[in-house]
Amino acid sequence: MMRFFDTCLWSLTLLTCLLSTLNIFHGRGVMAFHDIHHKLYETNSVENVKQVYRTGYHFQPKKNWMNDPNAPMYYKGFYHLFYQYNPKGAVWGNIVWGHSVSKDLINWIPLEPAIVPSKPFDRYGCWSGSATILPGDKPVIVYTGIINEKPEPGHQVQNYAIPANYSDPYLQKWIKPDNNPIIKPIHENVSSFRDPTTAWFNNGHWKLIVGSKSDLRGIAYLYRSRDFIKWTKAKHPFHTKNDIGMWECPDFYPISSQGTNGLDTSTLGNDVKYVFKASLDLTRFDYYTIGRYNLVKDIYVPDNTSVDGWAGLRYDYGNFYASKTFFDPIKKRRILWGWANESSTRSEDIAKGWSGIQLIPRKVWLDHSGHSLLQWPIMELESLRGQKKQLNNVKIKKGGTFEVKGINVVQADIDVTFTFLSLDKAELYDEKWKDLPSENLAKSICGIRGTTVQGGLGPFGLLALASSKLEEYTPVFFRVFKKAGGKHKVLFCSDATPSSLNKNEYKPSFGGFVDVDLREKKLSLRSLIDHSVIESFAEGGKTVISSRVYPTLAINENAHLHLFNNGSEIITIERLNAWSIKTAHIN
Ligand code: DQQ
Protein backbone atom coordinates (compact mmCIF):
# COMPACT_ATOMS: atom_id res chain seq x y z
CA MET A 1 0.00 0.00 0.00
CA MET A 2 1.27 3.45 -0.76
CA ARG A 3 0.87 6.52 1.41
CA PHE A 4 -1.76 8.85 0.19
CA PHE A 5 -2.93 12.35 0.99
CA ASP A 6 0.16 13.24 2.95
CA THR A 7 -0.49 16.81 2.05
CA CYS A 8 -3.68 18.62 1.42
CA LEU A 9 -3.94 19.16 -2.31
CA TRP A 10 -6.37 21.95 -2.02
CA SER A 11 -8.30 23.63 0.70
CA LEU A 12 -11.68 25.21 0.44
CA THR A 13 -12.85 27.72 2.95
CA LEU A 14 -16.43 28.21 3.91
CA LEU A 15 -16.40 31.45 1.98
CA THR A 16 -15.28 29.96 -1.33
CA CYS A 17 -17.79 27.24 -0.81
CA LEU A 18 -20.57 29.75 -0.32
CA LEU A 19 -19.42 31.63 -3.37
CA SER A 20 -19.42 28.52 -5.49
CA THR A 21 -22.91 27.76 -4.25
CA LEU A 22 -24.07 31.15 -5.42
CA ASN A 23 -22.19 30.65 -8.61
CA ILE A 24 -24.48 27.86 -9.76
CA PHE A 25 -26.79 30.54 -10.98
CA HIS A 26 -24.19 32.02 -13.26
CA GLY A 27 -21.65 29.34 -13.92
CA ARG A 28 -21.85 26.36 -16.20
CA GLY A 29 -23.63 24.35 -13.53
CA VAL A 30 -26.65 25.98 -15.06
CA MET A 31 -26.74 25.72 -18.82
CA ALA A 32 -29.18 28.25 -20.15
CA PHE A 33 -29.40 26.33 -23.39
CA HIS A 34 -32.83 27.60 -24.23
CA ASP A 35 -31.24 30.95 -24.94
CA ILE A 36 -31.56 31.78 -28.57
CA HIS A 37 -28.10 31.79 -30.20
CA HIS A 38 -29.01 31.18 -33.81
CA LYS A 39 -25.53 30.98 -35.17
CA LEU A 40 -24.65 28.30 -32.66
CA TYR A 41 -27.54 26.05 -33.59
CA GLU A 42 -25.58 24.57 -36.45
CA THR A 43 -22.05 23.49 -35.85
CA ASN A 44 -19.75 21.77 -38.25
CA SER A 45 -20.81 18.20 -38.43
CA VAL A 46 -17.91 16.17 -37.07
CA GLU A 47 -17.80 12.93 -39.00
CA ASN A 48 -15.32 11.11 -36.80
CA VAL A 49 -16.29 12.10 -33.33
CA LYS A 50 -13.50 12.17 -30.79
CA GLN A 51 -13.77 8.90 -28.95
CA VAL A 52 -11.81 9.28 -25.76
CA TYR A 53 -14.72 10.50 -23.64
CA ARG A 54 -17.42 8.58 -25.46
CA THR A 55 -19.11 6.06 -23.27
CA GLY A 56 -19.11 2.32 -23.89
CA TYR A 57 -22.46 1.35 -22.42
CA HIS A 58 -24.42 4.56 -21.86
CA PHE A 59 -27.04 5.61 -24.38
CA GLN A 60 -25.98 8.30 -26.81
CA PRO A 61 -26.62 9.07 -30.46
CA LYS A 62 -23.80 8.57 -32.97
CA LYS A 63 -23.07 12.27 -32.88
CA ASN A 64 -24.49 15.71 -32.10
CA TRP A 65 -26.42 17.15 -29.17
CA MET A 66 -28.89 15.18 -27.02
CA ASN A 67 -30.81 16.33 -23.96
CA ASP A 68 -34.04 15.12 -22.29
CA PRO A 69 -35.25 11.51 -22.55
CA ASN A 70 -38.76 11.57 -24.03
CA ALA A 71 -41.72 9.17 -24.04
CA PRO A 72 -39.98 5.96 -22.93
CA MET A 73 -42.37 3.05 -23.46
CA TYR A 74 -42.69 -0.63 -24.27
CA TYR A 75 -44.53 -1.65 -27.43
CA LYS A 76 -44.84 -5.03 -29.17
CA GLY A 77 -41.54 -6.48 -28.03
CA PHE A 78 -39.44 -3.31 -28.06
CA TYR A 79 -38.51 -0.63 -25.60
CA HIS A 80 -38.62 2.78 -27.24
CA LEU A 81 -36.58 5.77 -26.23
CA PHE A 82 -37.06 9.16 -27.85
CA TYR A 83 -34.82 12.07 -26.96
CA GLN A 84 -34.35 15.78 -27.58
CA TYR A 85 -31.86 15.93 -30.42
CA ASN A 86 -30.13 18.50 -32.60
CA PRO A 87 -29.45 16.74 -35.92
CA LYS A 88 -27.26 19.65 -37.00
CA GLY A 89 -24.64 19.94 -34.29
CA ALA A 90 -23.28 19.41 -30.81
CA VAL A 91 -25.05 22.33 -29.13
CA TRP A 92 -28.72 22.72 -28.22
CA GLY A 93 -31.01 23.82 -31.09
CA ASN A 94 -33.15 22.63 -34.06
CA ILE A 95 -34.84 20.28 -31.62
CA VAL A 96 -36.41 17.08 -33.02
CA TRP A 97 -37.26 13.76 -31.40
CA GLY A 98 -34.45 11.25 -31.93
CA HIS A 99 -35.65 7.65 -31.68
CA SER A 100 -34.08 4.28 -30.86
CA VAL A 101 -35.46 0.87 -29.97
CA SER A 102 -34.15 -1.97 -27.85
CA LYS A 103 -35.03 -5.47 -26.73
CA ASP A 104 -33.18 -5.14 -23.41
CA LEU A 105 -32.77 -1.41 -22.62
CA ILE A 106 -29.01 -1.85 -23.06
CA ASN A 107 -28.36 -2.44 -26.78
CA TRP A 108 -30.10 0.08 -29.05
CA ILE A 109 -31.00 0.29 -32.73
CA PRO A 110 -31.16 3.84 -34.13
CA LEU A 111 -34.16 4.91 -36.20
CA GLU A 112 -34.95 8.08 -38.10
CA PRO A 113 -36.14 11.00 -35.94
CA ALA A 114 -39.77 10.35 -35.07
CA ILE A 115 -41.15 13.86 -34.62
CA VAL A 116 -39.66 16.83 -36.43
CA PRO A 117 -40.90 20.41 -36.87
CA SER A 118 -43.11 20.52 -39.95
CA LYS A 119 -46.45 22.09 -39.06
CA PRO A 120 -47.53 25.53 -37.85
CA PHE A 121 -48.06 24.03 -34.40
CA ASP A 122 -44.43 22.92 -33.99
CA ARG A 123 -42.56 24.92 -36.62
CA TYR A 124 -39.87 26.15 -34.23
CA GLY A 125 -39.23 22.97 -32.29
CA CYS A 126 -40.59 19.71 -30.95
CA TRP A 127 -39.80 19.84 -27.25
CA SER A 128 -40.23 17.32 -24.47
CA GLY A 129 -43.23 15.11 -23.91
CA SER A 130 -44.46 11.69 -22.87
CA ALA A 131 -46.24 8.60 -24.13
CA THR A 132 -49.50 7.13 -22.92
CA ILE A 133 -50.69 3.68 -23.96
CA LEU A 134 -54.41 3.96 -24.69
CA PRO A 135 -56.77 0.95 -24.45
CA GLY A 136 -56.20 -1.55 -27.25
CA ASP A 137 -52.42 -1.08 -26.93
CA LYS A 138 -52.47 2.22 -28.81
CA PRO A 139 -49.59 4.56 -27.96
CA VAL A 140 -50.05 8.29 -28.22
CA ILE A 141 -47.41 10.95 -27.66
CA VAL A 142 -48.13 14.41 -26.28
CA TYR A 143 -45.28 16.88 -26.74
CA THR A 144 -44.59 20.60 -26.64
CA GLY A 145 -44.57 22.43 -29.96
CA ILE A 146 -42.97 25.82 -30.39
CA ILE A 147 -45.16 27.97 -32.62
CA ASN A 148 -43.20 31.19 -32.47
CA GLU A 149 -39.70 32.11 -31.43
CA LYS A 150 -41.08 35.05 -29.46
CA PRO A 151 -41.37 35.54 -26.57
CA GLU A 152 -38.17 33.70 -25.75
CA PRO A 153 -37.62 30.83 -25.39
CA GLY A 154 -40.68 30.38 -27.60
CA HIS A 155 -44.48 30.30 -27.62
CA GLN A 156 -45.45 26.84 -26.38
CA VAL A 157 -48.47 24.61 -27.07
CA GLN A 158 -49.14 20.89 -26.53
CA ASN A 159 -49.63 18.58 -29.51
CA TYR A 160 -50.33 14.91 -29.97
CA ALA A 161 -48.89 12.39 -32.39
CA ILE A 162 -50.01 8.85 -33.21
CA PRO A 163 -48.29 5.96 -34.99
CA ALA A 164 -48.92 5.80 -38.73
CA ASN A 165 -48.90 2.01 -38.53
CA TYR A 166 -49.80 0.24 -35.30
CA SER A 167 -48.56 -3.08 -36.64
CA ASP A 168 -45.00 -1.73 -36.94
CA PRO A 169 -43.27 -2.64 -33.64
CA TYR A 170 -40.57 -0.05 -34.46
CA LEU A 171 -43.18 2.72 -34.61
CA GLN A 172 -41.10 4.44 -37.23
CA LYS A 173 -43.64 6.88 -38.62
CA TRP A 174 -45.71 9.24 -36.52
CA ILE A 175 -48.67 11.35 -37.66
CA LYS A 176 -49.27 14.78 -36.19
CA PRO A 177 -52.98 15.34 -36.92
CA ASP A 178 -54.16 18.74 -38.10
CA ASN A 179 -56.47 19.27 -35.13
CA ASN A 180 -53.36 20.15 -33.12
CA PRO A 181 -52.58 21.90 -30.84
CA ILE A 182 -54.78 20.15 -28.32
CA ILE A 183 -53.74 22.36 -25.39
CA LYS A 184 -52.93 26.05 -25.60
CA PRO A 185 -51.82 28.28 -22.74
CA ILE A 186 -54.71 30.34 -21.43
CA HIS A 187 -52.50 32.55 -19.32
CA GLU A 188 -49.86 35.09 -20.28
CA ASN A 189 -46.98 32.76 -19.64
CA VAL A 190 -46.93 31.35 -23.15
CA SER A 191 -43.19 30.77 -23.01
CA SER A 192 -43.33 28.76 -19.74
CA PHE A 193 -45.86 26.07 -20.54
CA ARG A 194 -44.33 22.76 -21.51
CA ASP A 195 -43.39 19.12 -21.04
CA PRO A 196 -46.70 17.20 -20.70
CA THR A 197 -46.62 14.04 -18.60
CA THR A 198 -47.90 10.57 -19.34
CA ALA A 199 -51.67 10.69 -18.86
CA TRP A 200 -53.54 8.60 -16.28
CA PHE A 201 -57.21 7.64 -16.21
CA ASN A 202 -59.83 7.89 -13.48
CA ASN A 203 -63.40 9.11 -13.00
CA GLY A 204 -64.11 8.89 -16.71
CA HIS A 205 -61.26 11.20 -17.69
CA TRP A 206 -57.72 11.11 -18.93
CA LYS A 207 -55.55 13.51 -16.98
CA LEU A 208 -52.13 14.97 -17.58
CA ILE A 209 -50.06 17.81 -16.24
CA VAL A 210 -48.04 20.52 -17.93
CA GLY A 211 -45.10 22.31 -16.28
CA SER A 212 -45.24 26.06 -15.82
CA LYS A 213 -44.53 29.01 -13.57
CA SER A 214 -45.89 32.36 -12.53
CA ASP A 215 -43.06 34.65 -11.40
CA LEU A 216 -41.14 32.39 -9.01
CA ARG A 217 -44.03 30.00 -8.40
CA GLY A 218 -43.67 26.54 -9.95
CA ILE A 219 -46.98 25.27 -11.30
CA ALA A 220 -48.19 21.90 -12.56
CA TYR A 221 -51.40 22.55 -14.47
CA LEU A 222 -53.88 19.69 -14.64
CA TYR A 223 -55.84 19.01 -17.85
CA ARG A 224 -58.71 16.55 -18.27
CA SER A 225 -60.16 14.89 -21.35
CA ARG A 226 -62.70 12.20 -22.11
CA ASP A 227 -61.43 11.50 -25.63
CA PHE A 228 -57.74 12.56 -25.50
CA ILE A 229 -58.44 15.31 -28.04
CA LYS A 230 -60.49 17.91 -26.22
CA TRP A 231 -58.71 18.94 -23.03
CA THR A 232 -59.99 21.25 -20.30
CA LYS A 233 -57.84 22.93 -17.71
CA ALA A 234 -58.78 22.10 -14.12
CA LYS A 235 -59.70 25.04 -11.90
CA HIS A 236 -56.87 24.31 -9.45
CA PRO A 237 -53.29 23.45 -10.33
CA PHE A 238 -52.46 19.82 -9.62
CA HIS A 239 -49.60 21.05 -7.48
CA THR A 240 -47.84 24.37 -7.02
CA LYS A 241 -45.02 25.76 -4.90
CA ASN A 242 -43.79 29.28 -4.36
CA ASP A 243 -40.18 30.51 -4.53
CA ILE A 244 -38.95 27.67 -6.67
CA GLY A 245 -39.02 28.79 -10.31
CA MET A 246 -40.20 27.05 -13.47
CA TRP A 247 -41.12 23.37 -13.21
CA GLU A 248 -39.81 21.66 -16.33
CA CYS A 249 -40.50 18.02 -17.17
CA PRO A 250 -42.88 17.23 -14.31
CA ASP A 251 -43.50 13.54 -13.61
CA PHE A 252 -46.28 12.03 -11.51
CA TYR A 253 -46.75 8.34 -10.76
CA PRO A 254 -48.07 5.87 -8.22
CA ILE A 255 -45.67 3.75 -6.23
CA SER A 256 -46.43 0.67 -4.20
CA SER A 257 -45.93 0.77 -0.45
CA GLN A 258 -45.64 -3.04 -0.57
CA GLY A 259 -42.61 -4.43 -2.38
CA THR A 260 -40.53 -3.27 -5.29
CA ASN A 261 -42.85 -3.79 -8.27
CA GLY A 262 -43.83 -0.75 -10.27
CA LEU A 263 -47.39 0.32 -11.01
CA ASP A 264 -49.18 1.44 -14.12
CA THR A 265 -49.68 5.21 -14.02
CA SER A 266 -53.48 4.90 -13.59
CA THR A 267 -53.28 2.59 -10.55
CA LEU A 268 -55.26 3.60 -7.46
CA GLY A 269 -55.47 1.76 -4.14
CA ASN A 270 -54.77 1.70 -0.44
CA ASP A 271 -51.23 0.45 -0.74
CA VAL A 272 -50.33 3.18 -3.17
CA LYS A 273 -48.37 6.36 -2.56
CA TYR A 274 -47.42 8.95 -5.19
CA VAL A 275 -44.29 10.62 -6.44
CA PHE A 276 -44.24 14.12 -7.88
CA LYS A 277 -41.00 15.17 -9.57
CA ALA A 278 -40.06 18.50 -11.11
CA SER A 279 -36.92 19.57 -12.93
CA LEU A 280 -35.91 22.95 -11.58
CA ASP A 281 -35.01 25.30 -14.39
CA LEU A 282 -33.28 27.72 -12.00
CA THR A 283 -30.98 25.21 -10.34
CA ARG A 284 -30.91 22.39 -12.91
CA PHE A 285 -31.69 19.50 -10.61
CA ASP A 286 -34.59 17.04 -10.34
CA TYR A 287 -36.28 17.00 -6.96
CA TYR A 288 -39.19 14.89 -5.79
CA THR A 289 -41.65 14.52 -2.96
CA ILE A 290 -43.66 11.50 -1.82
CA GLY A 291 -47.30 12.21 -1.17
CA ARG A 292 -50.96 11.53 -1.61
CA TYR A 293 -53.30 11.94 -4.55
CA ASN A 294 -56.51 13.59 -3.37
CA LEU A 295 -59.00 12.22 -5.89
CA VAL A 296 -61.86 14.37 -4.72
CA LYS A 297 -60.03 17.63 -5.33
CA ASP A 298 -57.85 16.14 -8.06
CA ILE A 299 -54.68 17.53 -6.51
CA TYR A 300 -51.37 16.17 -5.26
CA VAL A 301 -50.44 16.75 -1.61
CA PRO A 302 -46.87 16.03 -0.47
CA ASP A 303 -46.45 14.23 2.86
CA ASN A 304 -45.18 16.41 5.67
CA THR A 305 -42.09 14.18 5.79
CA SER A 306 -41.12 15.39 2.28
CA VAL A 307 -39.42 18.76 1.89
CA ASP A 308 -41.14 20.50 -1.02
CA GLY A 309 -38.53 22.96 -2.29
CA TRP A 310 -34.94 23.41 -3.29
CA ALA A 311 -33.78 21.51 -0.21
CA GLY A 312 -35.97 18.53 -1.12
CA LEU A 313 -34.83 15.02 -2.07
CA ARG A 314 -33.19 14.55 -5.45
CA TYR A 315 -33.08 11.50 -7.65
CA ASP A 316 -29.42 12.22 -8.14
CA TYR A 317 -27.16 14.85 -6.56
CA GLY A 318 -24.89 15.19 -9.60
CA ASN A 319 -25.18 15.66 -13.37
CA PHE A 320 -28.78 14.55 -13.84
CA TYR A 321 -31.74 16.45 -15.30
CA ALA A 322 -35.10 16.35 -17.11
CA SER A 323 -35.76 12.76 -16.09
CA LYS A 324 -38.79 10.68 -16.92
CA THR A 325 -40.19 7.36 -15.69
CA PHE A 326 -42.34 4.73 -17.38
CA PHE A 327 -44.01 1.51 -16.31
CA ASP A 328 -42.48 -1.58 -17.87
CA PRO A 329 -45.38 -4.02 -18.25
CA ILE A 330 -43.05 -6.93 -18.99
CA LYS A 331 -40.95 -6.89 -15.86
CA LYS A 332 -43.56 -5.01 -13.79
CA ARG A 333 -41.22 -2.27 -12.71
CA ARG A 334 -41.00 1.50 -12.94
CA ILE A 335 -37.94 2.69 -14.78
CA LEU A 336 -36.28 6.07 -14.50
CA TRP A 337 -34.29 7.69 -17.30
CA GLY A 338 -32.21 10.82 -16.69
CA TRP A 339 -30.03 12.98 -18.91
CA ALA A 340 -26.43 13.78 -17.92
CA ASN A 341 -25.28 17.00 -19.50
CA GLU A 342 -21.62 17.50 -20.37
CA SER A 343 -19.40 19.38 -17.95
CA SER A 344 -17.07 20.35 -20.78
CA THR A 345 -17.16 23.68 -22.57
CA ARG A 346 -19.31 24.50 -25.57
CA SER A 347 -16.25 24.69 -27.80
CA GLU A 348 -14.97 21.34 -26.53
CA ASP A 349 -18.37 19.81 -27.29
CA ILE A 350 -18.29 21.23 -30.79
CA ALA A 351 -14.78 19.87 -31.28
CA LYS A 352 -15.71 16.39 -30.08
CA GLY A 353 -18.89 16.44 -32.16
CA TRP A 354 -21.35 15.31 -29.50
CA SER A 355 -22.87 16.30 -26.21
CA GLY A 356 -25.05 14.55 -23.63
CA ILE A 357 -25.65 10.99 -22.53
CA GLN A 358 -28.54 9.18 -20.88
CA LEU A 359 -27.66 7.55 -17.58
CA ILE A 360 -28.25 3.82 -17.12
CA PRO A 361 -32.00 3.26 -16.70
CA ARG A 362 -32.82 2.67 -13.03
CA LYS A 363 -35.55 0.70 -11.37
CA VAL A 364 -37.27 2.89 -8.74
CA TRP A 365 -39.33 1.82 -5.78
CA LEU A 366 -40.31 3.08 -2.33
CA ASP A 367 -37.92 2.70 0.58
CA HIS A 368 -39.46 0.76 3.50
CA SER A 369 -39.57 4.04 5.49
CA GLY A 370 -42.09 5.29 2.93
CA HIS A 371 -40.27 8.62 2.88
CA SER A 372 -37.88 8.27 -0.02
CA LEU A 373 -37.14 6.25 -3.15
CA LEU A 374 -34.56 3.61 -3.89
CA GLN A 375 -32.92 3.37 -7.31
CA TRP A 376 -30.88 0.59 -8.82
CA PRO A 377 -29.41 0.05 -12.31
CA ILE A 378 -31.69 -2.26 -14.28
CA MET A 379 -30.65 -5.91 -14.00
CA GLU A 380 -30.10 -6.15 -17.79
CA LEU A 381 -26.86 -4.23 -17.34
CA GLU A 382 -25.41 -7.34 -15.73
CA SER A 383 -25.49 -9.06 -19.14
CA LEU A 384 -22.53 -6.84 -20.06
CA ARG A 385 -20.40 -7.98 -17.13
CA GLY A 386 -17.13 -9.56 -18.25
CA GLN A 387 -13.92 -10.22 -16.37
CA LYS A 388 -14.45 -10.28 -12.62
CA LYS A 389 -12.30 -9.36 -9.66
CA GLN A 390 -13.24 -10.29 -6.13
CA LEU A 391 -11.74 -9.18 -2.81
CA ASN A 392 -12.60 -10.07 0.75
CA ASN A 393 -11.46 -8.70 4.08
CA VAL A 394 -8.89 -6.17 2.95
CA LYS A 395 -8.02 -3.71 5.68
CA ILE A 396 -7.03 -0.13 4.84
CA LYS A 397 -5.42 2.08 7.46
CA LYS A 398 -5.44 5.86 7.54
CA GLY A 399 -3.75 7.26 4.44
CA GLY A 400 -3.72 3.91 2.66
CA THR A 401 -4.92 2.83 -0.74
CA PHE A 402 -5.42 -0.55 -2.37
CA GLU A 403 -5.37 -0.87 -6.13
CA VAL A 404 -8.01 -2.98 -7.85
CA LYS A 405 -6.32 -4.66 -10.79
CA GLY A 406 -7.37 -7.17 -13.40
CA ILE A 407 -10.43 -5.47 -14.86
CA ASN A 408 -10.97 -2.69 -17.39
CA VAL A 409 -11.29 0.18 -14.94
CA VAL A 410 -12.60 2.71 -17.47
CA GLN A 411 -15.62 0.53 -18.26
CA ALA A 412 -16.51 -1.12 -15.00
CA ASP A 413 -19.15 -2.02 -12.45
CA ILE A 414 -17.85 -1.92 -8.87
CA ASP A 415 -19.85 -3.20 -5.93
CA VAL A 416 -18.22 -2.87 -2.52
CA THR A 417 -19.16 -3.19 1.15
CA PHE A 418 -17.08 -1.33 3.73
CA THR A 419 -17.15 -2.23 7.43
CA PHE A 420 -15.61 -0.65 10.52
CA LEU A 421 -15.41 -1.71 14.14
CA SER A 422 -16.71 1.40 15.82
CA LEU A 423 -18.37 4.75 15.28
CA ASP A 424 -16.39 6.38 18.07
CA LYS A 425 -13.93 8.17 15.84
CA ALA A 426 -16.57 9.89 13.72
CA GLU A 427 -15.61 13.56 13.49
CA LEU A 428 -17.83 16.27 14.92
CA TYR A 429 -20.41 17.84 12.64
CA ASP A 430 -19.66 21.56 12.59
CA GLU A 431 -22.70 23.46 13.81
CA LYS A 432 -21.57 26.48 11.74
CA TRP A 433 -22.67 24.56 8.65
CA LYS A 434 -26.25 25.43 9.50
CA ASP A 435 -25.48 28.78 7.86
CA LEU A 436 -24.78 27.14 4.50
CA PRO A 437 -27.63 27.20 1.96
CA SER A 438 -29.76 24.17 2.84
CA GLU A 439 -30.30 23.11 -0.78
CA ASN A 440 -26.57 22.68 -1.21
CA LEU A 441 -25.53 21.68 2.28
CA ALA A 442 -24.09 18.25 1.49
CA LYS A 443 -22.38 19.54 -1.63
CA SER A 444 -20.81 22.38 0.35
CA ILE A 445 -19.52 20.06 3.09
CA CYS A 446 -18.07 17.71 0.46
CA GLY A 447 -16.19 20.75 -0.82
CA ILE A 448 -14.99 21.83 2.63
CA ARG A 449 -14.04 18.34 3.85
CA GLY A 450 -12.84 16.58 0.74
CA THR A 451 -10.75 13.43 0.65
CA THR A 452 -7.56 15.23 1.53
CA VAL A 453 -8.82 16.53 4.87
CA GLN A 454 -8.11 13.68 7.28
CA GLY A 455 -11.10 12.46 9.22
CA GLY A 456 -12.11 9.94 11.85
CA LEU A 457 -14.60 7.55 10.27
CA GLY A 458 -13.87 8.34 6.67
CA PRO A 459 -13.31 9.69 4.16
CA PHE A 460 -13.14 6.23 2.58
CA GLY A 461 -14.26 4.93 -0.78
CA LEU A 462 -13.02 4.71 -4.35
CA LEU A 463 -10.53 6.70 -6.36
CA ALA A 464 -11.88 6.17 -9.86
CA LEU A 465 -10.25 7.13 -13.16
CA ALA A 466 -6.93 7.81 -11.39
CA SER A 467 -3.68 8.52 -13.21
CA SER A 468 -0.55 6.62 -12.20
CA LYS A 469 0.82 9.39 -9.97
CA LEU A 470 -2.60 10.59 -8.85
CA GLU A 471 -2.35 13.81 -10.76
CA GLU A 472 -5.98 13.05 -11.64
CA TYR A 473 -8.61 11.00 -9.83
CA THR A 474 -12.31 11.16 -9.00
CA PRO A 475 -12.99 10.19 -5.40
CA VAL A 476 -16.37 8.71 -4.52
CA PHE A 477 -16.54 8.42 -0.75
CA PHE A 478 -18.29 8.41 2.59
CA ARG A 479 -17.58 10.53 5.62
CA VAL A 480 -19.39 9.93 8.89
CA PHE A 481 -20.08 12.77 11.33
CA LYS A 482 -21.29 12.80 14.89
CA LYS A 483 -23.83 15.47 15.75
CA ALA A 484 -24.40 17.07 19.13
CA GLY A 485 -26.68 14.62 20.90
CA GLY A 486 -24.79 11.63 19.53
CA LYS A 487 -26.65 11.06 16.23
CA HIS A 488 -24.59 10.22 13.17
CA LYS A 489 -24.83 11.81 9.74
CA VAL A 490 -23.43 10.06 6.69
CA LEU A 491 -22.13 12.24 3.90
CA PHE A 492 -21.66 10.79 0.42
CA CYS A 493 -19.54 12.69 -2.10
CA SER A 494 -18.44 12.37 -5.71
CA ASP A 495 -15.77 14.96 -6.22
CA ALA A 496 -14.83 16.01 -9.74
CA THR A 497 -12.44 18.71 -8.49
CA PRO A 498 -9.26 16.60 -8.92
CA SER A 499 -10.68 14.63 -11.89
CA SER A 500 -8.82 16.38 -14.67
CA LEU A 501 -5.84 18.62 -15.30
CA ASN A 502 -8.00 20.47 -17.82
CA LYS A 503 -8.92 23.73 -16.09
CA ASN A 504 -11.87 24.52 -18.36
CA GLU A 505 -14.25 21.86 -17.17
CA TYR A 506 -17.04 22.26 -14.62
CA LYS A 507 -15.64 20.20 -11.74
CA PRO A 508 -17.99 20.30 -8.78
CA SER A 509 -17.71 18.34 -5.58
CA PHE A 510 -21.20 16.84 -5.55
CA GLY A 511 -22.71 15.53 -2.32
CA GLY A 512 -25.78 14.10 -0.66
CA PHE A 513 -26.61 12.74 2.79
CA VAL A 514 -27.45 9.07 3.24
CA ASP A 515 -30.25 8.25 5.63
CA VAL A 516 -28.92 4.96 6.98
CA ASP A 517 -28.89 3.02 10.21
CA LEU A 518 -25.22 2.52 11.14
CA ARG A 519 -25.78 -0.13 13.81
CA GLU A 520 -24.35 -2.81 11.54
CA LYS A 521 -21.26 -0.66 10.97
CA LYS A 522 -21.38 -1.12 7.22
CA LEU A 523 -21.74 1.09 4.20
CA SER A 524 -22.09 -0.09 0.63
CA LEU A 525 -21.28 1.55 -2.67
CA ARG A 526 -21.85 0.63 -6.30
CA SER A 527 -20.20 2.70 -9.02
CA LEU A 528 -20.67 2.42 -12.77
CA ILE A 529 -17.61 3.86 -14.49
CA ASP A 530 -17.77 4.60 -18.20
CA HIS A 531 -14.92 6.82 -19.52
CA SER A 532 -16.46 10.24 -18.82
CA VAL A 533 -19.19 9.34 -16.34
CA ILE A 534 -19.25 7.80 -12.88
CA GLU A 535 -22.69 6.87 -11.53
CA SER A 536 -22.55 6.00 -7.84
CA PHE A 537 -25.23 4.39 -5.67
CA ALA A 538 -24.82 4.54 -1.90
CA GLU A 539 -26.51 2.00 0.36
CA GLY A 540 -28.49 0.08 -2.22
CA GLY A 541 -29.62 3.22 -4.04
CA LYS A 542 -30.67 5.48 -1.15
CA THR A 543 -28.49 8.31 -2.44
CA VAL A 544 -27.19 8.55 -5.99
CA ILE A 545 -24.58 10.86 -7.54
CA SER A 546 -23.48 10.98 -11.17
CA SER A 547 -20.41 12.94 -12.19
CA ARG A 548 -19.16 13.79 -15.66
CA VAL A 549 -15.35 13.87 -15.71
CA TYR A 550 -12.72 14.30 -18.43
CA PRO A 551 -9.30 13.04 -17.34
CA THR A 552 -6.39 13.88 -19.58
CA LEU A 553 -3.97 11.23 -18.24
CA ALA A 554 -6.29 8.64 -16.65
CA ILE A 555 -7.70 7.42 -19.92
CA ASN A 556 -8.09 3.87 -21.27
CA GLU A 557 -5.22 1.58 -20.21
CA ASN A 558 -3.53 4.44 -18.32
CA ALA A 559 -6.32 4.65 -15.78
CA HIS A 560 -6.29 3.04 -12.33
CA LEU A 561 -8.83 2.25 -9.65
CA HIS A 562 -8.05 2.35 -5.94
CA LEU A 563 -9.87 1.88 -2.68
CA PHE A 564 -8.78 4.41 -0.05
CA ASN A 565 -9.16 5.45 3.53
CA ASN A 566 -8.13 8.80 4.97
CA GLY A 567 -9.70 8.49 8.41
CA SER A 568 -8.18 7.23 11.68
CA GLU A 569 -10.66 4.33 11.96
CA ILE A 570 -9.44 1.27 10.03
CA ILE A 571 -11.79 0.37 7.18
CA THR A 572 -12.29 -3.21 6.02
CA ILE A 573 -13.34 -4.03 2.48
CA GLU A 574 -15.62 -6.83 3.56
CA ARG A 575 -16.43 -7.72 -0.01
CA LEU A 576 -15.68 -6.25 -3.40
CA ASN A 577 -17.02 -7.55 -6.68
CA ALA A 578 -15.81 -5.67 -9.72
CA TRP A 579 -16.44 -6.42 -13.37
CA SER A 580 -15.25 -5.12 -16.68
CA ILE A 581 -18.31 -3.98 -18.62
CA LYS A 582 -18.41 -4.89 -22.29
CA THR A 583 -19.24 -2.30 -24.90
CA ALA A 584 -22.94 -2.32 -25.73
CA HIS A 585 -24.35 -1.96 -29.24
CA ILE A 586 -25.65 1.55 -29.05
CA ASN A 587 -26.97 3.30 -32.10
N1 DQQ B 1 -35.69 20.69 -22.53
C1 DQQ B 1 -36.72 20.78 -23.52
C2 DQQ B 1 -37.87 21.44 -22.84
C3 DQQ B 1 -37.63 21.16 -21.42
C4 DQQ B 1 -36.15 21.26 -21.29
C5 DQQ B 1 -36.19 21.51 -24.71
C6 DQQ B 1 -35.59 20.56 -20.09
O1 DQQ B 1 -39.11 20.94 -23.29
O2 DQQ B 1 -38.31 22.06 -20.57
O3 DQQ B 1 -35.16 20.80 -25.32
O4 DQQ B 1 -34.24 20.23 -20.26
TrEMBL record:
Protein name: Beta-fructofuranosidase
Gene Ontology biological process terms in this record: carbohydrate metabolic process
UniProt domain Glycosyl hydrolase family 32 N-terminal: residue ranges: 58-377
InterPro entries: ConA-like_dom_sf, Fructan_Metab_Enzymes, Glyco_hydro_32, Glyco_hydro_32_AS, Glyco_hydro_32_C, Glyco_hydro_32_N, Glyco_hydro_beta-prop_sf
Family under the similarity heading: Belongs to the glycosyl hydrolase 32 family.
A Pfam family hit: Glyco_hydro_32N
Domain of life: Eukaryota
The Glycosyl hydrolase family 32 C-terminal domain, residue ranges: 380-580
Record GO terms (molecular function): hydrolase activity, hydrolyzing O-glycosyl compounds
